[in-house]
Amino acid sequence: MPDRYDQMNLVEGVNAFQSARINAFWDEVISLVRGKPAELLSFEDIRTRLRLREENYRGLHDVPLDQIAGSVGRYRDFTSRFLPKSNKMQERWSRIYAQASGMTGLPPIELYKVGDVYFVRDGNHRVSVARRLGAKTIQAHVTELPTSIALRPGMTRQELDSATAYAQFLDVTGLKRTRPHLQPITLTEPTRYDDLMGHIHLHAAVMEDCSDCPIELEKAAADWYDNVYRPAVTLIRKYKVMRHAPGRTEGDLYLWMIDHLREVKEQMGDHPQARSLSDALVDYLAKRRISVPKDLLYERDSSVQLTRSTVEAQLNTYRTRLAAEQAAAPVPAGDHPPRD
After folding, report:
1. What is the DSSP string of 215-241?
2. Count of CB atoms within 10 A of residue 100's CB?
3. Dihedral angle at the C-alpha atoms of 272, 236, 308, 312, nearest 10 degrees?
4. Beta-bridge partner residues of 163
5. pLDDT tens digits for 178-224?
6. 171-188: string of b/e by CB count within 10 Å (b at 16+)?
7. For 237-255, what is each residue's pLDDT tens digit?
8. CA Rg value for the chain
9. Degrees (nearest 5) of the Cα angle 68, 70, 74?
C-alpha cells in the first residue's frame, strides 16, 4: 500500500512538473516583452556588490517563501518564481514533490539572509515544490550577512545598482562605523553617489583650511553628515517637502538644493549674497508654485559655499584614486558550485 501511494504521488509530481515548466515558459516570454528579467538574484553577485563579509547563524525559522528571491549556485536554473527552466530537472523535482506530498515531508533547507531577501544555499528544488504546493512558508536554517543596505525582493536593476553604489559610498566614507545610526542616504541615480563624494572631499578641504592640518576622509564624512546633510534633511522633514517631490528621495532633494545654491552663486558673480539650505527649499517650492511656509522664510541655518570648479576638482581627484584602487583590486571569486 505505501509503495502504491508513493507511486501515485510520483505520477502527480511528474504532472505538476510539466505544468510548472509551462508556467516557466510563459514567465520568460512575459519577461522578454516587459524587458524585465524573470531571474533569481545571484548570491555571489549581491555579496560582492554590497561588500558583505560577516556571517551569523540565526537558527531554524519558518521563512516566507515570497522573500526567497535568490540562490547561491542555481539562480539560472529557476525563474524568479522558482519555476524549473529545464526538463532535465524532472526526475529530481518530481521525487521531491512526491516526498513533500507523502507522510515524511521535507527536511529544512539552508538559506542566507541579506536585508529582507533570502538566498538558497541548499534546497532550491524544495523551494520550487513548496511554492507549487501553495505553501506560504518553509523551514530553514538561516545564516545572516548583516548589511545597512535596504535589500528587498523585487528590486529593479537600477535599484540594485543604487544599492551597490551606496554600499561602496558607506565603505569608502566609513559612515557605517562613525555614524552607526545614520539615516539611509538613498539616491535614485546610482552615479550621483560620486557627487556626494565630491561634496565630502570639498568639505575635507574646507576643514583643512580652517584647522591648518590634514583631515582624514572618515572624519570629514562624519562632519559633513552632522553639519551639512543631516541639517538639510531636518529642514526637508520639518516642512514636509517630500510631499511635493514624487518619485524622489531625501537624498535626491539634498543634491538638488546644493546644485541649486551653486548655480545661484555662479549667476550672481564675484560677490554673491550668502545663501542657505532654507533658501534653496524656498526656491524649490516657489518654482513649483507651492505655498511657502512663513516659518521657512525666517529659518536661520548656515550658508553653503560651493562653486562648480571646486566641486568638480574634488570629484575628479576622487574618481582618479577610485579607478586606481579598482585596477589594483583582486578579481572576486566565482560562484559556489551548484547545490540542490
Report:
1. --HHHHHHHHIIIIIHHHHHHHHHTTG
2. 19
3. 150
4. none
5. 999 898 999 999 999 999 999 999 999 888 888 888 899 999 999 99
6. ebbbbeeebeebeebbbe
7. 999 999 999 999 999 999 9
8. 26
9. 125
Which residue do the cell numbers 589594483 mark?
Answer: 328
For 69-119, the pLDDT digits (tens) are 999 999 999 999 999 999 999 999 999 999 998 777 889 999 999 999 999
Q: How many CB atoms lie within 10 A of CB 253?
A: 21
**Encoded amino acid at 99, one letter:** Q
Q: Which residue type sits at 271?
A: H
**Locus of grid cell 535614485:** 188
Question: Residue 50: what are its φ and ψ, rounded to 5°?
Answer: -90, 5
CA distance 52 to 55: 8
- The amino acid occupying position 282 is V
Number of helices (H), then strands (E), in the chain: 13, 6
Does residue 170 have a pLDDT over 70?
Answer: yes
Dist. CA 336–CA 340, nearest whole Å: 12
Cα–Cα distance, 237 to 233 (Å, whole number) = 6
Quote the crossing angle between the two packed helices 308-328 and 193-211, to the nearest 10°. Answer: 110
